[in-house]
């Protein structure tokens, strides 16, 4: 249980959730002094509007305004900080219990490894039937912690260890590939990380019954990205500890799938590297070999994430997955196009796109589909290798990233690429500033839709 939740027998106060159209009826059942207080305070049940209700012993409860739109987790995300520190609450009605529990937990999160939170969050007694929301929140906390950890403490070894810890927690198998085996099996990934004293590695998690359909998840785990010899300006490095966000996200998706016991077999690959600067760094103009046998001319060392993913995708594709999804903080172009809150979805499969978009909408975890436009594929041409890792033209950067990755996925594979931000630039209800677990509920929900929610044999 997360520390923002309380046991069912804990002493608690009622939390009433009210819409503007229901305000008069709610006011009519309140004691006169409480109704008068609401009137005097100007409470109108606007979204996220909160009032404490007076009572004989001090407080008799609290009221949350929902507005008239259907509530989402964010409707409840401000409550852990808005209600008195350390107080305990229960939902007076459980009409929107799943959204309330998820939003409450996401809003209570704080990264406290180096500095205590300024106040204890209010706690909620979760109603029965909300375990999925609690699991989703726990996975999001794990993802946020990984992304928020500074790069000096979250290098390739630590990221691989985090995968190992996740596997241990859920009875999965974890293999760490490094050294000569990495050089041979993941040559492009190894080239990206070769300049760092913190050696690259691949962490591989496997879970599920052998006869279940295989779902493969690949995550870009660049623990810090200097840009390599195509060095980023200082201002662009300030948030580069989050460049392993894709790896954190696939771990969060895997945790949700394993906790739900979905009838699939998981293969989760994290490419854990640091893109550093040294005399042995890979260079612009170098030609790299990839696991798939394709050669890549390096047009820019700051487009390293797609090199990492190329080898991961090739490895996963060799297993013949029923579904292949990669997550990466791949391009700034996706953020220019869609802003921070909408991960870009690329897939050639319309039915897969529909499943992901629908699941994202249902889970308040939206995605937005962008095209894998074939007309731009030639922009990746190289005169000395099978392809370049960037286009010569400074346009459609997110599309180009997706087209590059597509070359490492066999035709006909159900594949989706998610170009994510994985960060909140400023605090909002349910979304504190810092690392964010974007797309994990959307992808986990789509997996459940596509493969069913009844646990298969061996769970």
From TrEMBL:
CDD domains: Peptidase_M17
Gene Ontology cellular component terms for the protein in this record: cytoplasm
Biological process terms in GO annotation: proteolysis
Keywords: Aminopeptidase, Hydrolase, Manganese, Protease
Coiled-coil intervals, chain numbering: none
Molecular-function GO term, any one: metalloaminopeptidase activity
InterPro entries: Leucine_aapep/pepB, Macro_dom-like, Peptidase_M17_C, Peptidase_M17_N_1
Highest taxon of source: Bacteria
Domain Cytosol aminopeptidase: 300-307
Sequence similarity: Belongs to the peptidase M17 family.
Name of the featured protein: Leucyl aminopeptidase family protein
Originating species: Roseicella aerolata
